Amino acid sequence: MKSPKKLVVSALLGLLLAGLAVVPFPVVSPSPVTAQSAITLSSSVETAFPNSMTFKVKAQSSIDIVKLRLNYTVERQNLAKVVSEGWAQFSPAPSVDTRWLWDMRKGGLPPGARVEYWWTAEDASGKRSQTTRSTTSFDDNRYQWQSITTGPVTLLWYSGDRNFANALMNAAQQGLQKIQNDTGAVPQRRVRIYIYASAGDLQGAHLFAPQWEGGVSFTNFDIIAIGVPTNQLGYGIRTVPHELTHWLVGQVTFNSYDAGLPVWLNEGLATYGEGPELPDYQAALTYAINNNMLFSVRSLSSPFSAIPLQAYISYAQSNSIVTFLIQKYGKEKMQQLLDTFRRGSTYDGALKQVYGFDQDGLDALWRESIGLKPVKTLFLPQRELNLALAGA
Ligand SMILES: [Zn+2]
Predict the structure, then answer these.
(1) In this structure, what CATH number is given to the domain that contains residue 237?
(2) Ligand 1 centre from 133 Cα, in Å?
(3) How far is the CA of 243 from the centre of ligand 1 (A)?
């Protein structure tokens, strides 16, 4: 988005103030040694997206600098603020120019993630100095991003014209409105949606979307990344509200237990947010009914199969189950269900508390709603079910 950010910070005043705060005024004049030991610091950051961020620092003192430590914290929804540290390597000297490299290749940050950082230096006399806190972004500066903002949504794109971006923004707004109207989930924060020009560009950013989704929602970072070719606007119009719904639902159910939601509820809501029921979900559902390939609600609480047909049926079925819950029992119950998960609950416990039935009960009622007899479902872990269905 921008060229590497440069930031120069003088910490001399900070050191003097910190020294005054802890050291009482001496009765006699201070010795010249203490006056010489102030450390001057300046720092900068260079981003080489998606591989690394390099935090550079220059330190100057009248005696040897012996320690240089970077502290940093990533802006994300978190119950406790986590401060990490990196130690710069160098040989002690009065003047030091060094760096600390954050290798992002193994589990890095999403594009646009914001990092707050500051350096602390220590000299041979034990005196310390610290830069003021600064914020930098892990921007994907390989592309020239444009952006538009409506309400809590900022959409960033680099391929396609303004009409393309406006169409995706409209889909985002409609999806948010639909989920808000039908589940009571209201955005509390702002979100940025990065539209890459293709799935290949998305992968080039070290972002790997599931085959059936094409997008990734980093809910805790309030960042979404999706690959949408300009000639596949229809696909983008579904995927943007899908990922936005994951973000919104993740936000309103965030808790310290990390229990999460059953996958059928999460994907059912995301597909519900895509817009009016789309014919291919209905076709997949009809195919599954005719070929006796429906899953139990309970088995859909685990991650979906990687086998395309089964994955598609899982999405279609989750969409139908969530639509059934919203249409039959209403917005307030769905709002209560999400709130129960926010407070931490088992899947069956939350359903029982709000609707009075567990996942097996839901399975029977949902089947009845689409004209099927309830079955005595046999619970099989998803993997075994996949093997069985694949004929293994
Ligand atoms: Zn999804």
Answers:
(1) 1.10.390.10
(2) 37
(3) 6
d(CA 301, CA 381): 10
Helix/strand/coil (H, E, C) string of 232-281? Answer: CHHHHHHHHHHHHHHHHHHHHCCCCCCCCCCHHHHHHHHHHHCCCCCHHH
Rounded to the nearest angstrom, the distance between the alpha carbon of 159 and the centre of ligand 1 is: 24
What are φ and ψ of residue 34, in 5° steps?
-65, -35
**Ion ligand 1 contact residues with beta carbon within 5 A:** 213, 267, 270
One digit per residue, the tens of pLDDT, for the chain of length 392 reads: 333 333 333 333 333 333 333 333 333 333 334 445 589 999 999 999 999 999 999 999 999 999 999 999 999 887 678 899 999 999 999 999 999 999 988 778 999 999 999 999 999 999 999 999 999 999 999 999 999 999 999 999 999 999 999 999 999 999 999 999 999 999 999 999 999 999 889 888 887 766 666 788 898 899 999 999 999 999 999 999 999 999 999 999 988 666 689 999 999 999 999 987 677 899 999 999 999 999 999 999 999 998 889 999 999 999 999 999 999 999 999 999 999 999 999 999 999 999 999 999 999 999 999 998 877 544 555 555 555 555 43
- Cβ-based neighbour number of residue 154 at 10 Å: 18
With a threshold of 0.90, does the pTM exceed it? no
Q: How many angstroms does the Cα of residue 143 sit away from the middle of ligand 1?
A: 26
Regarding whether 105 and 159 lie in a shared domain, the answer is no
CA 267 to ligand 1 center in whole angstroms: 5
Residue 215 alpha carbon to ligand 1 centre in Å: 8
Closest CA to 41 of 3, 11, 80, 83: 11
Beta strands 93-103 and 84-87, pairing class: unpaired
* 133 & 154 share domain: no
For 216, the domain range is: 143-252
Kindly give the distance from the C-alpha atom of residue 123 to the centroid of ligand 1, in angstroms, as a whole number. 52
